[in-house]
Amino acid sequence: MRDKGWNKTNYWAIISLDVGKDSGIIANFAAFTDILCPMTNIHPIFERMLPRRDKEQLLKQQGKVLWLTGLSGSGKSTIAIALERHLHGQGYLTQLLDGDNVRTGINNNLGFSEADRQENIRRIAEVAKLFAQCGIITICSFVSPTEDLRRLAQGIIGEDDFIEIYVSTPLSVCEQRDVKGLYQKARAGLLSNFTGIDAPFEPPIRADIIVPAHEWSVAQAVAHIAQYIHPPMYPKINIAVDGYAACGKSTIAKELAKRLGYIFIDSGAMYRAVTLYLLRHQIAVSDAAAIAKALDDINISFAPNPETGYSDTYLNGENVEQRIRESDVSNLVSPVSTVRAVRQFLAAPQQAIGHQKGVVMDGRDIGTVVFPDAELKLFVTARMDVRTDRRYCELLRKNIPADKNDIARNLAERDHLDSSRTESPLRQAADAILFDNSDLNPREQLNTAYTWALERIERAKAGSAVG
Fold first, then answer.
1. Structure confidence by residue, pLDDT tens digits, 408-459
2. Which among 145, 184, 282, 461 is least surrounded, fewest beta carbons within 10 Å?
3. Which of the following is catalytic: 77, 144, 337, 424?
4. In order of start, what are the domains of the chain with their CATH numbers?
5. Integer Cα distance of 211 and 338 in angstroms
6. Is 464 a catalytic residue?
7. Of the ranges 2-6, 209-213, 253-257, which one carries the lowest mean pLDDT score?
8. How far apart are CA 138 and CA 89, in angstroms?
9. Could you tell me whether strands 300-305 and 209-211 are parallel, antiparallel, or unpaired per DSSP bridges?
């Protein structure tokens, strides 16, 4: 058994004391330690490899892992096969990994003990991750019966790439089907550790998609899942996301746009860019005339950042995405946003962007002023204690000292200023959905907003068909 304190450096130091400057002996010993410590021979070259984004651009698709979980006989494999054929017909490159198939190959040395089940999922997740990083849509159909196993897979693959799909067919229905005769064998004691009989199945508590395969046809299940990969493209809709500060509206809007393949516009970034310009040129917020004159010299644009997958904000050709998030800008952006000339200056380009459809924009007057005809409007809110905690954690992550009482006071003042200003005050549009996300985590927020978006897309699709 190798001593816990073993490492190549320790033994190198010890042997060096004996051999002095005999480089030949040292070289031979270095080779010897490489044999005893094979991990020292591993030198990853990830940073030198062709980046994922180049492969996705070639394929014109994003790599994802669709992880189907459910009891044996729930319909996972049937749905997975049909889903792959559907996506292939839509022009997507896919790879299907199915439990029984994998156990005849890479995992043919594993059984069904707890340790083997874990290793089975670990290997599958690592393979699925490789496919996803090449831009391939990977469909995984595995019982994966416990939360721990599914979180293991998600942790390896990455939360952004992992879409958990629960095929929720009840045990009684699965037993009636029993296509492979496995339940009958398990009940007779001929199979041990069989999920649902003498081994547990834990229904997912955070599935992105739930498919009641005992109630839906295969075609219905496929259509529902496929929307996560290629949501209905025609017609596209505009989505307005308004709400109070520190409610998470920007995160919701940004991730929703990413999932839909839409353009995300952070209207707040535009106001921040104007504020930064005024700061740099020492123009007082109270000097409305000077601000109106300065606007002629301001050009704001957005360009995709391939590293983040989102758009960065540019002020007169300079990338200011990070600079506009700093505290001096944050402290002034609210009063700047109340200046009539500034709001009028930014409203026109914001509305022009929306003419092409397929835009998600967040702000405080998007649903009432900028996109009054948006097909989906969300008004995001949360309890003050939740908002305070979110802003507090955000500041701590940035190593910015913070006091919760000060944060709560600042948010209350911001709410009053935004809601009472004369020009385009913050208010919920009459046709907006009130979205209180106080008790939802970011993934749950995104899934809720995405469901609403798909409903509106289908409604717009039906309307265009009638027209």
1. 998 998 899 889 888 788 999 999 999 999 999 998 999 899 889 988 988 8
2. 282
3. 144
4. 8-41 (no CATH), 52-226 (3.40.50.300), 238-466 (3.40.50.300)
5. 47
6. no
7. 2-6
8. 15
9. unpaired
